[in-house]
Amino acid sequence: CSRPQKVCLCPFLPIHPLKVSTCLYIIQHPAEESRVLRTVPLLAACLPPDKCKILVGRRFGEDRYPELATVCRNPNTLILYPGAEATNLEEVAVMCSSPSVLIIIDGTWSQAKDIFYKNSLFRLPKQVQLKTNISSQYVIRTQPTNTCLSTLECAAVALSIMEKNQSIQETILRPLQALCSFQLQHGAQIHHSKEHLLKNGLYDKPMPKNKRKLRRMELLVNNVKI
User: Fold this and answer.
1) Where is the DTW domain (predicted)?
2) How big is the chain by its Cα radius of gyration, in Å?
3) pTM: predicted TM-score of the whole model, two decimal places
4) How far is residue 73's CA from residue 88's CA, in Å, rounded to a whole number?
5) Which pairs count as long-range contacts for 55-60, CB under 8 Å and 24+ apart, including other chains?
């Protein structure tokens, strides 16, 4: 896991990489590379190298990324990005008989949105979303809402659905749970979601002056899906 011995996560990783037929393509925003507590390295440590491929960047043109372009045009490729056009992954997984590819964008919500809408390749695969009400266990990083999941959590849930194996989710979440536990033991604080802070009057930052951002805050408080 490349962490100091005192906070080593290796005992919480699977002894052997998980055997999965689904291949993940993680499209990572460059800003994520510098984050100390990012989850993608833990995800990659749980899977065979050929089943978890990480591409870092903001723009992904066909000329520079021919392999990715081929993947995006494959009818068995899915992209995990919620929205009105997205189908619940559970419904799609029932019809998937052959090995699939799942693309996941790794970054903040605004970074992921920028990558998705400014790269036409990512609108070629079938768009899917997770229909889940589970709360994120990544409690050492602030999320917009309680049900916003980290990249590792999204991958864990998605793989368990596509592989029809619940134990995959439990195995991949184990190092994340250990990471959060170690950080909390060494002085980190639990980060409640922005939704939780706003609803309980605990949000201590200045409210945005931008009307669009202020409207998003109001939607969070009123439990409106954004």
Assistant:
1) 1-188
2) 18
3) 0.78
4) 20
5) 55/25, 55/26, 55/27, 55/28, 56/28, 56/29, 56/30, 56/32, 57/27, 57/28, 57/30, 58/29, 58/30, 58/114, 58/115, 58/118, 59/118, 59/119, 60/27, 60/115, 60/119, 60/121, 60/122
Look at residue 44 in the predicted model and tell me its pLDDT: 93
The structure tokens listed for 96 are: 């998937």
Which CATH number does the domain 18-184 belong to among 3.40.1280, 3.90.550, 1.10.10, 1.10.760? Answer: 3.40.1280
Angle at 66 between CA 63 and CA 69, to 5 degrees: 105
Q: In one letter, which amino acid is 115?
A: I
Of 148, 123, 124, 126, which Cα lies nearest the Cα of 138? 148
The dihedral sign for the CA sequence 38, 146, 11, 185: positive
Q: What is the mean pLDDT of each run of 10 residues along the chain (226 residues)?
A: 77 92 95 77 93 95 95 94 90 79 91 94 94 66 61 91 92 85 60 47 56 54 46
Give the tokens for residue 148: 């916003």
Take residue 137 and report the two structure tokens written for it: 């266990």
Strand spans (E) along 10-100: 23-28, 52-56, 77-80, 87-88
Q: Which amino acid is at 211?
A: K
